[in-house]
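In response to reviewer comment 3 from the previous cycle, which asked for concrete evidence that the modeling workflow produces usable outputs, we include below a single protein chain processed end to end. The sequence was submitted unchanged, and the resulting structure tokens are shown without manual editing.
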Amino acid sequence: MHSNSTGHFSTGAALPIHSLELLELTMSTQSVKLYRHPLSGHSHRVELLLSILQVPTQLIDVDLLAGAHKQPDFLAMNAFGQVPVLDDNGVVLADSNAALVYLARTYGNDRWLPTDPAGAAAVQRWLSVAAGQIAGGPASARLVTVFGAPYNAEELIARSHALLKVLEGELGQRHFLVGNEATIADIAAYAYIAHAPEGNVSLAEYPQVRAWLARIEALPGFVPMQKTLVGLQCA
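The workflow returned the following structure tokens.
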């Protein structure tokens, strides 16, 4: 594992040793740690919300190829051995959607997750889609091309287009998945839809979906996920 830092920690000039030590202590005790992989859409959704909410964050890259996610220190945080893992000064969350809920409630001032039952349920619907149809469609199709997963690519591409047709209809009625303001529903869905072409899933026939992606990318604090030149991205 190696780490880099994001957020609002900036010195601007060289500092004496005692000041550097104080800065490192401040970062270690106050910033959120996100254990991630740069090509993981699950990781990106948490990173994206942290950036939008301007939460000081240390990004810690987990070397999946070297099996770092299966080592005892990582398994102690997530027994499933998966990224991402969020550590907010001892509050450890090992699921990306759970992390979104936590961050929205802790740092989002109710802006990203409605407090009324109907609004909260509407968001939960799309969190379930992110863990279901999105994970089993465009996310899995991308696993074939990016990571060489031995899945049935044609079946996954077909599932992806079935999902995109539903999204196209839903987004023709409103700007975001739940109303006309972005919520964590949009954050959860974004990465794997935006990167669907990497799994040979074209977005050309879905103008509402593409407009929705552009609206998310225009949000203050937006950070992109690293692209991979595979699938339709090679065209």
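Residues 153-171 form the longest helix (19 residues). We consider this sufficient to address the reviewer's concern, and the full set will be provided in the supplementary archive.
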